[in-house]
Amino acid sequence: MTDWVRVHKSNYVFDTCTPVWDPFIIRMSTLCNNNKKLPIRISVHSFRNFGTHYCYGSAITSLREIEMGRHTLELTTSKGKSAGTVTVTNLHMNLRPSLLAYLKSGWRISTGVAIDFTLSNKPYDNPRSNHA
């Protein structure tokens, strides 16, 4: 896969060989289009005030792999050499169940139905109509 879409850009961490980035909140629809198996590329760059930022390396994973326990990601350079690791220390997903999930879990829904026979009534401004 060669076409990637940037969905998040972290803060810069200066003057350290072991950076720790701030936690961030991102919607699952933005991160992986609600598909946990969709590949996600995590890249680590060196910040430069001008030109392009130097890429130390990148790792490809998926939200499903991180969720299943693959928390340490091996970074590789564009030439395939090892460039270190990135560790995901915390993953919290706040899932909103769908209506179908609610129904499958035993919830009940009560509905009411009303029919407006407007055309069979008199005009709404008539005092004898059912609209009043």
Provide an overview of this structure.
Strand 1 and strand 2 (54-62) form a beta hairpin. The mean pLDDT is 84. The longest helix has 6 residues, at 99-104. The protein contains three helices and four strands; from the N terminus they run H-E-E-H-E-E-H. It is of the alpha+beta class. The strands form two sheets. Strands 1-2 form a two-stranded antiparallel sheet. Strands 3-4 form a two-stranded antiparallel sheet. The chain has a domain at 28-96.
Question: What structural category do the secondary elements indicate?
Answer: alpha+beta
Instruction: Tell me the fraction of residues in β-strands, as a range.
Output: 15-25%
Please report the number of helical segments: 3
Which segments are poorly predicted (pLDDT under 50) over 5 or more consecutive residues? none
Coarse morphology: elongated
Order of helices and strands: HEEHEEH
Number of strands: 4
Largest beta-sheet details:
2 strands, antiparallel
Report how far the terminal alpha carbons are from each other: 65 Å
Topology of helices and strands:
Blueprint: H1 28-32, E1 39-46, E2 54-62, H2 63-67, E3 72-76, E4 82-87, H3 99-104
Antiparallel strand pairs: 1-2, 3-4
Task: Sum this structure up briefly.
This protein has 132 residues and is an alpha+beta fold. It contains three helices and four strands, in the order H-E-E-H-E-E-H. A hairpin with a 5-residue loop joins strand 3 (72-76) and strand 4 (82-87).
